[in-house]
From TrEMBL:
Keyword Isomerase (UniProt): no
Membrane spanning residue stretches: 21-44, 50-72, 93-117, 129-154, 166-184, 211-232
A Pfam family that the UniProt record links to this protein: ABC2_membrane
Membrane disposition: Multi-pass membrane protein
Highest taxon above the source species: Bacteria
Subcellular compartments: Membrane
Domain ABC-2 type transporter transmembrane, first and last residues per copy: 11-204
Keyword annotations from UniProtKB, A to Z: Membrane, Transmembrane, Transmembrane helix
Record protein name field: ABC transporter permease
Native source organism of the sequence: Faecalicatena fissicatena
Length: 238
């Protein structure tokens, strides 16, 4: 256990120095938050009511779906994987330490947005803070679980970039954070309900259908965890 915690702390420090994760988990989401927060509140003053939730969903989705999979490919798609086996460390060690480190980074980024939104844009702060942050933790976990599946399943960095974008862009465009999902055609609105970002946005905002939203996020988390176990087992055999 101590070795795992030390590895996670080391991974956390390495991620801070990683350009890809620094950009996707901090720089781009916070820059998007600063620019789009000004635009949204200037054009649509009512957007202040859900500004924290919408910017958080965008930032978490980008950090998880764009930033994490390439790092996992560097571990499990190269000879680094064999180093874990040669050292007698469980093959899941790298995955779990990476995901826990990314979880902490995304939580910190979300906390920065939460703290700055009211001061910068007079955004409305969620009423029930414990429920908000528990929901945020679940949403981050579900998003990271999908990222883990992508990182373990796709071995080519070029292909991985395409698949990450194919998952990230619909998540953002169909989630309702850019414009109300009710304005979408019925088919696209239903398609958007397959992505964690849609339910994360609704749940963080205290929207309707809470039970079904939590059930979907938990299903995604459990299903992705099962797939990761299968992919790691397959990787151990190759």
């Amino acid at each position: 256990m101590s070795a795992f915690l030390y590895g996670t702390l080391l991974q956390f420090k390495m991620d801070i120095r990683s350009r890809s994760l620094l950009v996707t988990c901090y720089l781009v989401p916070l820059l998007f938050f600063a620019i789009m927060g000004n635009i949204f509140t200037a054009l649509m003053p009512q957007s202040r009511d859900a500004l924290i939730q919408s910017m958080t969903v965008m930032g978490v989705s980008m950090g998880a779906l764009i930033g994490v999979p390439p790092v996992l490919v560097e571990i499990y798609g190269t000879d680094v994987r064999k180093m874990y086996q040669a050292g007698g460390a469980p093959l899941c060690f790298g995955l779990l330490s990476m995901l826990l480190s990314a979880f902490l980074h995304l939580l910190i980024m979300s906390g920065i947005m939460f703290a700055a939104a009211e001061a910068l844009f007079d955004a409305k702060v969620p009423e029930h803070l414990p429920g908000y942050f528990l929901t945020l933790a679940l949403f981050i976990g579900a998003s990271l679980s999908l990222a883990a599946v992508l990182g373990l399943l796709v071995k080519s960095q070029a292909k991985l970039t395409m698949y990450c974008q194919l998952l990230f862009l619909p998540s953002i465009m169909l989630s309702g954070i850019m414009f109300p999902a009710q304005l979408l055609p019925d088919a696209l609105e239903k398609l958007g309900r397959l992505f964690p970002a849609t339910w994360g946005y609704q749940l963080l905002g205290g929207g309707e259908a809470e039970l079904s939203g939590y059930a979907l996020l938990l299903t995604v988390l459990a299903g992705a965890a099962g797939l990761c176990c299968l992919l790691l087992r397959r990787s151990r055999c190759t």
